[in-house]
């Protein structure tokens, strides 16, 4: 009788699991992560390659696909991959950051099992530990709509990925030692487009045809401006949201952000500059790729087209012009505008203020006066096994404290499943901030200069602002978002400036459901790596 009950329980569990994932395709990917010599700025460096490539191979998926990604670590350091913008619905176990996963030890492997549930759009993956991002190891993620779901533009003739961002000639471990010693990074040495320097990459187009360009800022420290000589950029998507199709001559993309443009090859057949340059920096770095018409007989010529440099106002106006396409279908057949985010009253307001304190004589960065330090055990795993002493809920305040003394803490903020919250990012520093929230897409309802107050809500866009996962905060300004906490798990909220993130400008939001149900959260993976105080424990039998 006992055996028959066990078999029945196993059968029910399998049905539940297959009900979640069984009808959707599986894509199997194997990655070998190695060091290799790269020369992106003409100087030999130690890069991190995936299957021998820098940048790494694209991930192509369709909404709701299951991705089985086996990662073999051939580095001499622990390694993790995270998935910028992939929401990991009910499954923060696969998020690939230090608060959710044990690292893959040298010579070992780990298989990520994740689903791009109810998502479309342009994202990227990156290495999340030990400042590895400064050595490469990143690549594009493209999530396509299901065939029967209409998209609000004709099928383009081609789909190009642009991974752009600042770069250092110095090896990542030297930069890491510099940060560990209490110093900030120097100014970057240059910019890259798809791992190449000046005119090092070519996009080939046919005259008269229209192409999609998916652009991500994968850099470490600076916002960029993107443009194509003589061509307009028609914005169609921002981090999984179809947008109103406004046209721009150049576009600001802040750290960690991704977007898509339609570009029509409607100029005289020749070669044109594809340009990325730094924004909000006194010294402006620029790099170019080439837009090559297939019948071109003439190379690039003329000056590289200019763009705003340190001016804030044009960037703010441009950011406010990005609007949701209310009639377009997202990953589901219902229009994006059917979710009336502006009609829901938030249950509470959280304010997050960044700062750059010195603690024990060393440069650190903090959120609400708390500079994050990683625990010896991933927070998600410690929470599952109820291991005491790893972290404390409420170890970061939900409002900036009045004092100026910052301190170290493994900071975790508590939140409840199905809360609807307002989060205000308050920036009193003189640099642009870029904030990312794992596991979620949120509504950027407002941004303005000075101090946020309740009266600031009168300027909110409560009708058609865009939903995204990374937002900028301008100097001495604020940005406000609305977010439905509909995804149970342990979620990283961080600066996308990688030095600031590394030195403490991050924390975790624990979204909790008391139900302990697979409906709300998937169980710990059977293959979960266990380390720290969880070493020697067991995951689950099936």
UniProtKB/TrEMBL annotation:
Domain Plastocyanin-like positions: 33-146, 159-296, 377-514
A molecular function GO annotation: oxidoreductase activity
Keyword field contains Signal: yes
Alphabetical UniProt keywords: Glycoprotein, Signal
Annotated signal peptide: 1-22
Family per record: Belongs to the multicopper oxidase family.
Protein name from the UniProt record: L-ascorbate oxidase
Organism annotation: Gossypium barbadense
Lineage: Eukaryota, Viridiplantae, Streptophyta, Embryophyta, Tracheophyta
């Amino acid at each position: 009788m006992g055996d028959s009950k066990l078999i029945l329980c196993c059968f029910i569990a399998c049905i539940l699991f297959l009900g979640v994932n069984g009808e959707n395709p599986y894509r199997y990917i194997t990655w070998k992560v190695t060091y290799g010599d790269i020369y992106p700025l003409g100087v030999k460096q130690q890069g991190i390659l995936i299957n021998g490539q820098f940048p790494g191979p694209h991930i192509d998926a369709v909404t709701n696909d299951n991705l089985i990604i086996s990662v073999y670590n051939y580095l001499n350091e622990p390694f993790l991959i995270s998935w910028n913008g992939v929401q990991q619905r009910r499954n923060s176990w696969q998020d690939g950051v230090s608060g959710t996963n044990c690292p893959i030890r040298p010579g070992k492997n780990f298989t990520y099992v994740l689903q791009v549930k109810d998502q479309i759009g342009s994202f990227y993956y990156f290495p999340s530990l030990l400042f590895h991002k400064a050595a490469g190891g990143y690549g594009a993620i493209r999530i396509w709509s299901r065939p029967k779901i209409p998209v609000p533009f004709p099928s383009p003739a081609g789909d190009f990925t642009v991974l752009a961002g600042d770069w250092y000639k110095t090896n990542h471990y030297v930069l890491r030692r510099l940060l560990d010693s209490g110093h900030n990074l120097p100014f970057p040495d240059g910019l890259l487009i798809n791992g190449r320097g000046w005119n090092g990459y070519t996009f080939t187009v046919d005259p008269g045809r229209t192409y999609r360009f998916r652009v991500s800022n994968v850099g470490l420290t600076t916002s960029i401006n993107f443009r194509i000589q003589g061509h307009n950029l028609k914005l169609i998507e921002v981090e999984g949201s179809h947008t109103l199709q406004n046209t721009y001559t150049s576009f600001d993309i802040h750290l960690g952000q991704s977007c898509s443009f339609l570009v029509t090859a409607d100029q005289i057949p020749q070669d044109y500059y594809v340009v990325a340059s730094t924004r909000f920096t006194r010294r402006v770095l620029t790099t170019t790729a080439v837009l090559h018409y297939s019948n071109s007989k003439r190379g690039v010529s003329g000056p590289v087209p200019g763009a705003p440099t340190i001016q804030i106002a044009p960037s703010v106006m441009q950011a406010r012009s990005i609007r949701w396409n209310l009639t377009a279908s997202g990953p589901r057949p219902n229009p994006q505008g059917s979710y009336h985010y502006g009609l829901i009253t938030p249950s509470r307001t959280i304010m997050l203020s960044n700062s750059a304190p010195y603690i024990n004589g060393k440069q650190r960065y903090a959120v609400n006066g708390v500079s994050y330090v990683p625990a010896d055990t991933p927070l998600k795993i410690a929470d599952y096994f109820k291991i005491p002493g790893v972290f404390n809920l409420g170890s970061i305040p939900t409002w900036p404290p009045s004092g100026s003394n910052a301190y170290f803490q493994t900071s975790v903020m508590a939140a409840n499943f199905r809360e609807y919250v307002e989060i205000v990012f308050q920036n009193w520093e003189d640099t642009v901030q870029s904030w990312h929230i794992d596991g979620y897409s949120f509504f950027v309802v407002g941004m303005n200069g000075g101090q946020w107050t309740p009266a600031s809500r009168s300027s909110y866009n409560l009708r058609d602002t865009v939903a995204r996962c990374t937002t900028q905060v301008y100097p001495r300004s604020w940005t406000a978002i609305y977010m439905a906490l509909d995804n149970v798990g342990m979620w990283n909220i961080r600066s996308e400036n990688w030095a600031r993130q590394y030195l403490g400008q991050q924390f975790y939001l624990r979204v909790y459901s008391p139900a302990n149900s697979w409906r709300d959260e998937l169980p710990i993976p059977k293959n979960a790596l266990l380390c720290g105080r969880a070493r020697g424990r067991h995951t689950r039998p099936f």
